[in-house]
Specification:
alpha/beta, ABC transporter transmembrane region fold, Rossmann fold, six-stranded mixed sheet, four-stranded antiparallel sheet, 22 helices, 10 strands, elongated
Length: 610
């Protein structure tokens, strides 16, 4: 029965994609594994001093583990068999010293290795988090946030656990193996051959097992990330889940993903669990062969003594134990490599395009925007096609149109979250591509439809718009956004701690705080993405007055779905399928009695009908 059939049989489940492992796939995976291990080593190598101390301790512990059994064997031949007491006490004291030194060296190597591992994952986690902030917005638009969070938590923790447990054991096992073989050959080449006869069996058994556990560990890490992403998504969207009574469907989908993870984890651990069983069986076989051949040699020849047989039985265990440990640790290493590959995949992602070498800093701007035949496409799909319009300093420009018309895309181009393919966007006569992104965005403020608050105080959430703002300026901004009154009514006022979802305050109040954040930023360019969509009618009227004050003297871009909020905009641009259908002010577009007119009248009918 094939591995794929074995996986299906116990559960009658057909989603475990264990492919037939071709030679090309094996070579490719081997290259990836070796490359990943090299990259992990590059982080470990930053702790060279402590690594050398660990190596010295491993050498000492390995030497002591070899010396102990050797001394026991010599004690049997030189003292117990000959019944000589002289020197036996000294040897016993020496044995005690050997095992104490062995224990001390193991403690020290573990102690130092823990520090190395912690510093390594600290560097890795920091690099990954920094990478998140250098990736383009498009990268996050295409991925679940929970799945990305899994990279910085589960995957890196997996690497951390393996570094703590496996690196020392692998190195120690290799040294012990080499030392054991050397001493065994010195004592008895014949018994060495007997002991080594099980190595080919061990090799092929281990290779057969690890060849199958590698893909399973990678699949397990992948499915763990998917499950985390799904959980994060559904927990964040609980309000929507309950509103549409989708609890049962969500639970069923979770069960499917949980079962996927359960199956891949079950088979990874089950198949990996064969290794110690096989090793123990071969270990017992080795003992029996040593006892049989050694006994025959001891009785019939002088090539082997009783002490040598005792040494060999202990060394046989020390010979198979490193092989056993290497096999077990190899499985852990495969799991860590799978996690590390996922981390390095993010680190290797293409970052947000660097600013042009000649890109400049803008100290002051007027806010004069001009679109000249701007075209943009995303993943071979045309989004905008030859867009032309001009926004003069201090003007308010509103974008309207059906979903997918290109409204948000234009905002993303203005803020350089995306780069346009052709044409030009000019700010004060300068191509946006010639302006540093950080400089451009420092002159902008955003009030988005989905208000986001950080897990900190209300004061700091508002101050996020300008970090050097004083407490008095924070209060002024809150008053401008009509948020001051409700903030004062909270138990801790401006020091009230909010969760990222803003629990404890209403949706409208959250939006007021984001508007206050825009006030305090004192931007030259303002972006409003349906900024009052989550605010009640009475509050909306107050906010509209505040926004009018905020937009004075500032170039403002407004995405609107409710046309009554943009009637006073200097320019309204109606988009459809990435093209401009109409542009003008509210009255001019109504006089045309075309697309905007029909959209406006349709919304009026909806309001009257409701």
């Amino acid at each position: 029965m094939s591995i794929k059939q074995q996986l299906k049989a116990p559960f009658q489940y057909e989603k475990i994609p264990i492919e037939n492992i071709s030679e090309d796939n094996t070579k490719k995976r081997a290259r990836n594994t070796v490359g990943t291990i090299k990259r992990i080593w590059s982080y470990l190598a930053r702790e060279k001093a402590r690594l050398w101390l660990v190596i010295v301790m491993v050498l000492i512990s390995s030497a002591m583990s070899l010396l102990g059994p050797f001394m026991v064997g010599k004690a049997i031949d030189n003292f117990i068999v000959k019944q000589e007491v002289t020197g036996f006490g000294i040897l016993v004291v020496g044995l005690i010293a050997v095992y104490l030194l062995h224990s001390l060296s193991i403690f020290l190597q573990s102690f130092w290795m823990i520090g190395i591992a912690q510093n390594t994952v600290y560097d890795l986690r920091s690099e990954l988090f920094h990478k998140f902030h250098r990736l383009p917005i498009a990268y996050f638009d295409k991925r679940q946030h929970g799945e990305l969070m899994s990279r910085i938590t589960n995957d890196i923790d997996n690497v951390n656990n393996t570094l703590n447990q496996s690196v020392i054991q692998v190195f120690s096992s290799v040294l012990t193996l080499i030392g054991t073989i050397g001493v065994m050959i010195y004592l008895s080449p014949i018994l060495t051959v007997v002991t080594m006869s099980i190595v080919p069996v061990m090799f092929f058994a281990t290779r057969w097992i690890t060849k199958r556990t590698g893909p399973l560990y990678k699949l397990q890490q992948k499915r763990l990330g998917e499950l985390n992403g799904y959980v994060e998504e559904t927990v964040s969207g609980q309000h929507v889940v309950k509103t549409y009574s989708q609890e049962e469907r969500v639970i069923k989908e979770f069960e499917v993903k949980n079962k996927d993870l359960n199956h891949s984890g079950f088979w990874a651990l089950t198949i990996a669990g064969f290794i110690p069983k096989v090793m123990n069986m071969l270990n017992f076989l080795s003992f029996g062969m040593i006892a049989l051949v050694g006994g025959i040699l001891a009785i019939n020849t002088e090539l082997v003594t009783i002490g040598v047989i005792v040494i060999f039985t202990e060394y046989a265990r020390q010979f198979t134990r490193p092989l056993n440990e290497l096999s077990n640790q190899f499985n852990l290493l495969l799991s860590a490599v799978a996690g590390a590959e996922r981390v390095f995949n993010v680190i290797d992602e293409e970052e947000e395009e660097l600013d042009e070498s000649r890109a400049i800093e803008l100290q002051e701007i007027k806010g004069h925007f001009k679109f000249e035949n701007v075209t943009f496409g995303y993943e071979n799909e045309a989004i905008l096609n030859k867009i032309n319009f001009e926004a003069k300093p201090g003007e308010s420009v509103a974008f309207v149109g059906h979903t997918g018309a290109g409204k948000t895309t234009i905002i993303n181009l203005i803020s350089r979250f995306y780069n346009y393919d052709s044409g030009k966007i000019k700010l004060d006569g300068i191509d946006l591509k010639e302006i540093k992104r950080s400089s451009l965005r420092s002159h902008m403020a955003f009030v988005l439809q989905d208000s986001f608050l950080f897990h900190t105080s209300i004061r700091e959430n508002i101050r996020y718009g300008r970090l050097n703002a004083t407490d008095e300026e924070v209060i002024v901004a809150a008053k401008q956004a009509n948020a001051h009154d409700f903030i004062e009514q909270l138990p801790d006022g401006y020091d009230t701690i909010l969760d990222s979802d803003g629990s404890g305050i209403s949706q409208g109040q959250k939006q007021l705080l984001t508007i206050a954040r825009a006030f305090i930023a004192e931007p030259t360019i303002l972006v409003l993405d349906e900024a009052t969509s989550n605010i009640d009618t009475i509050t909306e009227l107050k906010i509209q007055e505040a926004l009018k004050e905020l937009m004075k003297g500032r170039t403002s871009f407004i995405i609107a779905h409710r046309l009554n909020t943009i009637q006073e905009a200097d320019q309204i641009i109606m988009l459809e399928h990435g093209q401009i259908l109409e542009k003008g002010n509210h009255d001019e577009l109504l006089d045309l009695k075309e697309n905007y007119y029909n959209l406006y009248k349709g919304q009026l009918r909806e309001v009257v009908g409701s």
